[in-house]
Automatic annotation (TrEMBL):
The keyword Hydrolase applies. GO terms for biological process: carbohydrate metabolic process. PROSITE patterns: GH18_1, GH18_2. One of its GO terms (cellular component) is extracellular region. Residues 1-25 form the signal peptide. The lineage of its organism: Bacteria, Bacillati, Actinomycetota, Actinomycetes, Micromonosporales. It is an enzyme of class 3 (hydrolase). Its EC number is 3.2.1.14. Gene3D superfamilies: Carbohydrate-binding module superfamily 5/12, Glycosidases. This is chitinase.
Length: 424
């Protein structure tokens, strides 16, 4: 996300860092002992085993409520190890992820299976099945300055940008910008807190975003993880935020940030909303720190709003073609990297600039965003690229920023919000 009106476009032609992966089914003739029976309520992580309908299966990544019988194969979560006999268990599921996949697919399947949404994490509050997210600017940069309560009703989730680093490693703080306060005719902490309560009364959720283009928050030790969790929890208690957004554009440590977010959730409770806003390059490979973080907290992660802009050309999930930003193909071909590599469709959303003024490159008309959502959810209205599956649970869209959208006559939200209600 960008704090200033002048945005530098760094054009990147990406070559995926991920390796190739090939999965093999076991020898059916071996008739190995059956693992413990698969349970729809159990959590399984990479290399956990389960049996169903006389077959053994091994999980490739974190999963819950995804039946091995219908979710096995090269492009799905379970490896079919072949027929089994007996009842001796080989391994049991654990309660939290211990490792994540490190490879990306190298080719698309020939058929187009449908991936249905599965059990969602509890940290979704009362967010709709498909929802619209926007960033509210706590600074002035040429976009229309707004008090929080003036945010249009089209937005379901509002990310307040930004919390900033303090002198304590990992800790963050939030202060209303004096320039914003002056621009809107005065704005106090008490008024801001009241506006959050007003948004809640309208059925909206408000989270605090950490970082941004100029953010320097670093969580790279146990002490920093503790400081992060404690300071964000303090902001939640002080202002009434519903959760936190991780928008660290200058790198992150997935191990310590995962620890910090789990600690925060233990403090704030199961309804804590956790979102992420990685840059496009950050979600090209499961080996990247952002993708690794998303997989490590998949059980408590609400949604990833990848920034599909300011990124140049990138490889899609077919790992064969580079797609140019500012096109429907770019959105659909990159979104399926996440859905094909461990994230549930309901944890994936499309992040776009609200206008040409909001980013240096990558703007598409909101009608193109709608077409991309149709393509991902239904397999219709696609461009020349068609994803290897359909994802009815695709979560929605995000924009940088609400302020730029208002400046542009609310065209972005007014076009996309009603369309979200038509998705399956």
């Amino acid at each position: 996300m960008k704090r200033s009106r002048s945005v530098l476009l760094a054009t990147v032609t990406a070559v995926a860092a991920a390796g190739t992966a090939t999965w093999f089914a076991g020898d059916a003739s071996a008739a190995a002992a059956c693992a413990s029976a698969w349970s729809s309520t159990a959590v399984y992580v990479k290399d956990n085993s389960a049996s169903q309908n006389g077959h053994n299966y091994t999980a490739k990544w974190w999963t819950q409520n995804e039946s091995p019988a219908t979710h096995s194969g090269q492009w799905d979560v379970w490896i079919d190890n072949g027929t089994c006999g007996g009842t001796t268990p080989t391994s049991s599921p654990t309660s939290s992820p211990t490792s994540s996949p490190t490879s990306s697919p190298t080719s698309s399947p020939t058929s187009s299976p449908t991936t249905s949404p599965t059990t969602q994490p509890t940290g979704t509050g009362s967010l709709p099945a498909h929802f619209l997210t926007g960033y509210w600017q706590n600074f002035v940069n040429g976009a229309t300055p707004l008090k929080l309560a003036a945010v249009p009703s089209t937005y379901d989730l509002i990310a307040v940008s930004f919390a900033d680093a303090t002198s304590t490693p990992g800790a963050v703080s939030f202060t209303l910008d004096p320039g914003l306060s002056s621009a809107v005719g005065g704005y106090t902490d008490a008024q801001f807190k009241a506006d959050i309560a007003t948004m809640h009364s309208r059925g909206k959720k408000v989270i605090i975003s950490v970082g941004g283009e100029k953010g320097s928050v670093s969580v790279s030790s146990d002490a920093a993880a503790t400081a992060f969790a404690n300071s964000v929890y303090s902001l939640i208690q002080t202002y009434g935020f519903d959760g936190v957004d991780i928008d660290l554009e200058n790198g992150l440590n997935p191990t310590y940030m995962a620890s910090a977010l789990r600690s925060l959730r233990s403090k704030a409770g199961a309804n804590l909303i956790i979102t992420m806003a990685p840059q496009t390059i950050d979600m090209q490979s499961t080996g990247s720190s952002y993708f690794a973080l998303a997989l490590a907290i998949k059980d408590i992660l609400t949604v990833v709003h990848t920034q599909y802009y300011n990124s140049g050309a990138m490889l899609g999930c077919d790992q064969m073609n580079a797609y140019s930003q500012g096109s429907e193909n770019f959105l659909t071909a990159l979104a399926c990297i996440q859905t094909q590599n461990g994230l549930r469709p309901d944890q994936v959303a499309l992040g776009l600039p609200a206008s040409t003024s909001a980013a240096g490159g990558g703007y598409v008309a909101p009608s193109v965003v709608n077409a991309a959502l149709d393509c991902l959810a239904r397999g219709t209205n696609c461009g020349t690229f068609k994803p290897p599956a359909t994802y009815p649970g695709i979560r929605g869209a995000m924009t940088w920023s609400i302020n730029w959208d208002v400046t542009n006559g609310n065209n972005w939200a007014n076009t996309i919000d009603p369309h979200l209600a038509t998705l399956p």
